[in-house]
Amino acid sequence: MQLLFLAIYGAYGTTALFRVLYYRRVGLTSAQIGLLIAMEPMVMLVSGPLWSMVADRTGLRGRLLTLVTGMSIVPLMAMIWLQSWGALALLTALHAMFLGPIQPLSDSSALSALGSKRAEYSRVRALGSLSYAIVVWGTGVLLQGRDLRWVFPGFALLMGSACLISTRVRTDQPSLAVSLGSGLGTLLRDRAWVTFMVALFLSMVMQTVTFGYSALYLDALGASEGVVGFSGALGSFGQTLLMLFVIPGMLRRWGSERLLLLALGVYAVRLGMWSLIPQVWAVVASMAVMGFTFGTALVAAVDFADRHAPPGLATTSQALATGLVSGMGRSAGGILAGSLYDGIGPQATFGVFTVISLAALAAFAVVWRRRVAPIPAGARE
Predict the structure, then answer these.
(1) Do residues 133 and 240 make contact, with C-beta atoms less than 8 angstroms apart?
(2) 378 torsion bin: left (phi>0), alpha (psi -120 to 50), beta (else)
(3) Is the pTM of this model over 0.70?
(4) Ramachandran category for residue 174: left, alpha or beta (phi over 0 → left; psi -120 to 50 → alpha)
(5) How confident is the model over 186-222, as pLDDT tens digits?
(6) Domains of the chain, each with CATH number or no CATH
(7) Which of 132-136, 205-209, 265-269, 312-316 holds the top average pLDDT?
(8) Neighbours of 362 (CB within 10 A)
(9) pLDDT confidence of residue 225
């Protein structure tokens, strides 16, 4: 599983920040780029849960993971030659169709392997962040003065490695023992689950703004591809250290809900810096605390979804959290930020999302203040 995370997130590192720059270089507007950013999670809304339901129903999680990691390569490679808006939109949708289930399938397999030690998931997943950091930094350095299309073969190489590694993944999770409708109904009737998913949705809106538009903002401020890559690497290196040494203990002591509150608060700090200090150094410096935004939100979502999953519905529960709900949040963030970015300017756009993040933090702090009791040390072991 550690090797699998290294390969998967290394592959993401080749294109995650640089694909939006590629879209800009081939002539797309900010609104068109925003639609492409939003399109990927919108397709993943459907593809992630559907593939994961198949995995839960059949118990064939490992084999489906092999299929989708391999097929995710084809649309991205086609972007080397097809550069019109319509072609890129179609290829983005096809890529998302296979990308959607990769995270829930790999996360549920990791949790299955960890068993009762699921709090250690953060340390297993941290290697993915480390791989991402190294690859995104190296990609930025290698792209200096070169064609951005080189990111696509890089993705193919690393995701192809993940495809091969996934053939060794084994899981002892049973196939779904209850009806799918009954299992989903159990989740939707769980008020705590629904409340958490609303907070996760808003957190992922902020994630899209800070992640999807950081490269465009740095580019507008005059930063080079090397600086863009360094900023992404700085965030992932910091996230790796936090996930290895800090977040597992925070999860045991605080629980999923408080981790998500921390993410919303730090999102407000980062976006506030971008709005008030339009300098390359300020944007890059804010990436150092990325682990307290996406890292904590990710660990909180995976842990919460696993704890609230009905028997036999582990992968689908992960897909609903990290695919459906997170995808809806990323889509909403991409569409809203894309329309605001050109209309009112980047600083005002980041200011709007700062206010939204602060409002969400205050609201959910009140909601969870009485419902969420402190978790005794060692209770999650």
Answers:
(1) yes
(2) left
(3) yes
(4) beta
(5) 677 788 888 999 999 999 999 989 988 888 899 889 9
(6) 2-167+185-371 (1.20.1250.20)
(7) 265-269
(8) 13
(9) 80
